[in-house]
Amino acid sequence: MLEQLKNISKEKNLSSLMANVSVAFLGLVSFMLLTRQLSKELFGEWVLFITLATFVDLLRFGLTRTSSVRLLSGANDQKQKNILGSTFRININLLGILTVLCWGAHVILLSYNLEINNGYRLFLFYYPFLALSNLSWNNAMSLFQAEQNFRRMMVVRLSNVGLFCIFLVINQWWLHLGLIDIIWVNIAVNMVSSIWCSIKNWDGLFFVKHAKRSIRKELVNFGKYSMGTLISSSLLKSSDTFIIGMSPFLGSAGIAMYAIPLKLTDLLGIPLHSFAMTAYPRMSKKSIEGDLSGVKKIFYSYVGIITMLFFPVALVSFVFAEHMVLFLGGAEYMDSLPLLTLIFRVFTVYIMLLPIDRFTGVLLDSINKPKLNLYKVLVMTSANIILNLLAVFVFKSLVAVAMGTVLFTVMGIFLGFYYLKREIQIKSGQIVSESVLFLKNLKTHLG
What we know:
- This protein is an all-alpha fold.
- 86% of the residues lie in helices and 0% in strands.
- Helix 3 (40-62) packs antiparallel against helix 10, helix 5 (77-112) runs parallel beside helix 10 (213-246) and helix 15 packs parallel to helix 17.
- It is globular.
- It starts with a helix and ends with a helix.
- One of its GO terms (cellular component) is plasma membrane.
- It is a multi-pass membrane protein.
- The chain crosses the membrane at residues 14-34, 46-63, 90-112, 124-144, 156-176, 299-321, 333-353, 374-395, 401-420.
């Protein structure tokens, strides 16, 4: 029995899940503390700032993350140095370009005294500092994912998320600092993690001299598609926040309200992210070896089992939606409780569809068809932006924004299966049979 528990604890899917759950738990606590420390308007500005920062981080690291994980999988020590040094050089160049763009835009806003949501102003000024502080630990994530070292990944992430959470607890009871101070502390804790990764040679800072032009070219050629996919994927959710922030009718308060059911949805999606992180290197390896049958088996098993796991979670969330929203948002959102409950219930439908949509994209990347995955996500993103604009400026409804999320996900599923059937003859009917077979042999997989 003890031996079986040891095997389960070492299982990579579980290690990945525990890493993400640990980080997400502290992120949830931080979110709850922030809703109670900031007014609706200030919390909305924070959400807009951090959503923009996350989106641009995807742009920076999307260019190299997926392609470097693919190359690092199975690479020897010298090749690792070449790849890590090359990714670091690419990312430091991107940081310089983004700094010029952000501060240049900030100067223009000040010069012409243009009126925009303050969350956008905060982003333009403070993001370059945040981008520098999180550069090294983000670059190290590629190495951890390629090595399937999810424990190390968890510890590095906890070093900044945990410190930020501790600060917010202290701030709640004693300091009572405002939004600007909270942003600076967030920058500082990210820097702690980055310095640690640099000292341990996980980020590639001291391997820049080993960077090779041929590797940089290979990373960028693959990465230009995966970056587009990641940016578009991020826009699927973050465009909601960006467009709500542009509305004079909804504004920062609307962002704050919408952020609560959206946060709950993100929490429910954590297991999916964890399984996708383990599935991608496995499917990539099979694809590189030419074992398309093995690739398809992994795909069928993951999609079927995760969808089965998500069903009871989505059902419980639908039933207890009101209690979950109130728990997360606190008393200040009591007056908006019926609206936020309805939005979250719409999102539970989206949660049920998410595994199929996500893994069609992961499979397209794994078989070296990132361009098709990009096309798929671009169609979804375009549809989402159009639906968001209609929901915010025509219907002036946050519920309509959430319904648009369900619609574009259905579109993504149909398009993903269309591409996969054309490329490798995927059969959706085999998802159930392969999932049942996987469950029958579960002991073998764990042992």
